[in-house]
Amino acid sequence: MGKITVPLGPQHPALKEPGSFTLALEGEQVVGASIKLGYNHRGIEKTCEQRTYTQDVYLIERVCGICSHSHTTAFCTAVEEIAGVDIGKRAKAIRVAVGELERIHSHLLWLGVAGHEIGFDTLFMYSWRDRELVLDALELISGNRVHYAVNTIGGVRRDISADTARKVLAAVDKLEERTKYYIKVATEEVTVLARAKGVGMLPESVARKLCAVGPLARASNVPKDVRRDDPYLIYDELDFNVITANSCDVFGRLYVRVFELLESCKLIRQVLKALPEGDIVAKMSRKIPAGEAVARYEAPRGEDIHYVKSNGTEMPDRVKVRAPTMSNFAAVSYMLEGGFLADAPLVIAAIDPCFSCTDRATLLRGNSGEVVDLEELRRMGIEHYRAKGVDFSKL
Amino acid sequence: MTAAALERENAVKAALEQKFPGKISDIRIARARRMFAKVAGADAVAVLSFLKDEQGFDHLSTITGLDEGENFAAMYHLVSGSVVLSLRAVVPASAPVLSTVTGLFPGGEDFERELIDLLGFSIEGLKEGRRYPLPDDWPAGEYPLRKSWKGLPPAPKGEGK
User: What is the pLDDT of residues B88-120, one digit of tens each?
Assistant: First the structure.
């Protein structure tokens, strides 16, 4: 049988972000895969050189719509290191709390996408409903659901009051309870196992050779985690486990992420129950002395690395950003080859490539600003179907 | 920062000085777990190979391209356990040529393509492939991350919108 070349993307290859995959097929089997990226190149690194450090924080926040806090934390810690400023423990603790909430939000989002890709949309709807809990907690702290703008050069812009901490902890309790259900689904549900086990194999040696990072590496038994290996903020004082799996497949990536949800809950409790006293922002000069620094951060998708070079002015000389997904794309070609076409979207989605999610689920009715809550939406849904003749009383 | 805490960093520094006498300059331990070093572009692959095979720096995080006036540099950010060593390979701006490191780090292909697209490096030995990250119709000779680059020249009259 001759080879057939099938383009996957650049529009929506697996999820709502552009990337072009050219797959060579023999029958249903993928025998070659090449990737073209760059559709989202926005020139952020160049732009950073033409803005002040403070302005750059807002720009860096927009590198990613999901791990916005990861990027700003890496950037700010690099700048603070050059300036030789210690931001204090309270600011560091708040950065950790927001970072772990962000990880929960990101992993729950991924779980939904994975559910959708395997045709298990109930899982998608459940996990995205529960993700609202963590987004509400983030909104409570920062006023925003996705771009929290918590970080600033020298510390954080939002304090966490005792009352806010109590509410966030209540949300974490609820999330932990739901996570236990997801662990059961991910490890026992036959639909999930059938679609995820043995799919998108990435052996440990290949993961190491291609410098894979994050849950992708950890699911191939490579226990890399910047939080433990190269601790930043206050991670060296916190108790958590680095979750790994040795199945080297999509199932392993699912396993690692759902168990990491529990670890994040544990971390948030440790931080918020003993939030250190002190200022949340250190006074800093707008001019940063000449120097350079490398900051690493364990983003939800893996190692995020920023390099900042300063020249004594208010603007950096060079800012380099390498998001985790870029390190993992080399492994995608490997994982696609030898697999089946039908699994390609799932294999691509299993590295959790970054995509923007900024839509709010709150529906505003008319111009009055009246908010429709979940119960109201549910009631409207039932009414809508009842009007069409669907009888719910027998269900 | 005690001397004992920097045991690993000092050992790497000593190993580099012993293996490449006179070839590596400015070996600097900026703080615990952060090292910087400088090498001529032509010696970069040999040093990277030594660091990977004999010093355990088996993770290439990324490569940062730098325009430093008369010279360009490619900074290889290598990780071994908790230590990050950023090796700056310096080349003249008039001929920014480096050899590929994809033989050592196959995952580094896109990092090198970035050097080519954004700063105008030539990477010898890099396999043929699609450009990254600029669009296919990006004009030749325009390198956005060069300090002299101020934007694309305006389109001639009658073209574009």
Answer: 999 999 999 999 999 999 999 999 999 999 999
Relative to beta strand B83-92, strand B34-40 is parallel
CB A118 within 8 A of CB A192: yes
Which pLDDT does position A388 carry in this prediction?
82
- Check if the beta carbon of residue A237 is closer than 8 Å to that of residue A151: no
Q: Please judge whether B106 and A209 are an interchain contact, meaning their C-beta atoms are less than 8 angstroms apart.
A: yes
pLDDT over 80 (residue A113): yes
A293 phi/psi in degrees, rounded to 5 = -155, 150
Q: Provide the β-strand partners of residue B72.
A: B67, B91
Answer whether residue A357 shows pLDDT above 50: no
Q: Is the dihedral of CA B36, A325, A35, B49 positive or negative?
A: positive
Burial of A348 (0-12, 13-18, 19+ CB in 10 A): buried
- Pairing outcome for strands A291-299 and A302-310: antiparallel
Looking at chain A, the whole-number percentage of residues with pLDDT higher than 70 is 93
CA distance A68 to chain B (A): 20
The residue among A170, A150, A58 whose CA lies nearest residue A97 is A150
Q: Which domains does chain A have, with CATH numbers?
A: 44-321 (1.10.645.10), 368-395 (no CATH)
Domain edges within chain B: 25-124
Query: What's the fold here for domain B25-124?
Result: Beta Polymerase; domain 2 (3.30.460)
Residues of A in contact with B52 (CB under 8 A): none
> Which DSSP category does B139 fall into?
P
Least confident of A206-220, A325-339, B60-74: A325-339
Say if CB A214 and CB A302 are below 8 A apart.
yes
Task: Report CB contact under 8 Å: A230, B36.
Answer: no
The chain B residues in contact with chain A (CB within 8 A) are 30-31, 33-34, 36, 58-62, 64, 66, 75, 77, 79, 81-82, 84, 86, 105-111, 118, 129-135, 144-145, 149
DSSP-derived secondary structure letter, A305: E
pLDDT of residue A385: 83
Q: What ipTM did this prediction achieve?
A: 0.94
CA-to-CA distance for A22 and A10, rounded, in angstroms?
10
Asked whether B108 and B129 are in contact (CB, 8 A), the reply is no
Distance CA A44, CA A59 (A): 7
A274 exposed, middle or buried (CB, 10 Å; 0-12, 13-18, 19+)? exposed
pLDDT at A1: 62
